[in-house]
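Two entries, shown back to back:
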Amino acid sequence: ATLAAVFTLLALKRRGIPLRPQPPDWKALRRLFAIGAPITFSGITLSMVYLATGHIVSLYGGAAALGAMGIALKLEQCAFVFCEGYGIGAATIVGQWLGHGKVQPARKAAAAAYRSALLCVIPGMILLCFFPTAVVRIFTSDPTIVSVSASMLRVVAAVLPFTALDLVYDGAMTGAQNTTYSLVSSLLWNPLRVPLAIILSESGLGLFGIWLAIDIC
């Protein structure tokens, strides 16, 4: 992180944008807070929800289920990297088009970013859907974890297109400086994972119900 910061500062200096100590611009800071705060609160909400769902998974499935959840989330994060990259690209291009007052090109840019992200996650969908056991064995040889993981990975594969949609258009909304959408959707949907996980697991679906709750919301 330190080296990255140094290279960033050097790159800015070469572009004629040296960073010097200056008095705070309170108007700019208020605007930055208005844009950044919803994203921050969304991240905090998601982290708290994952702590709660992790506790539920541990209660219903023990250490093996918790290990399976960890592997599934790591694999899901691989898709997140691609989708968030296109989301950042969408934020940049959408912001530029809207800055010029051109709404239609901004919409087309967001749609193009989503199509590109979708193409990137399709190979992962195929692997997780049809070869979940082989994928899990890369991380562990524990037969219990391998068995428990398979069902969750298929659920992850099924929702990857919607994950791409969410992350890319979340980036597009950031470019449009409308991050309140992220906060509202996070506060509405993410906390529902906890009661839904309890309801579905108690309805006879067991761990599979918890996997559904985690990925549907």
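entry 2 starts here
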Amino acid sequence: DALLAAGAQRAPTTAEWMIEARAAVADTAWWSCPKAAVSSQGVVAFLSAELQVGARRVADPGTVYQADDAPGLVLVERLLQPIYLQVPRHGHAERRALVALLRSVLQTAAGDSSTILQETTGFVRLYASHYLCISCLAVLAQLKRQLPKILLEVGCDDAWSSWRHREAEAKHVLRVGLQSESSV
């Protein structure tokens, strides 16, 4: 609802990229439980992008990001500031994905980076396994300010309800320990 209030438009149907993103995230975070899935460390993000940066192209067909509180490149991180609310939020998966993308754009850019950022075109698609917190919404707004000519598509789920509807798959069964030959 916050994105709609800010002028975003609802897509008429679930986009094909969202289906791919959900599957990639489910494969990565299949072990998660509802409580972990809604925590800062449990939300998983998927980002794909195709951007024209001056005469060069930045493409990411789809990468899954998990939360990580390790510090990154300070200069790029300053372009997308988290909001500190009760806990540090700089390591949220959604922000990590967008910082990584912005880092790629800046590494690709030749010349004045502020001019290049303002002229960059293309699309960015971000999916999160749980709805975005206020800090991640602020980071989206900052990204759009840095890259005003891009199309930014954002999708998310409510991990409390979507986790309950996941199907267990054989590839998500782990065996730990030694097995006798007769049990193999």
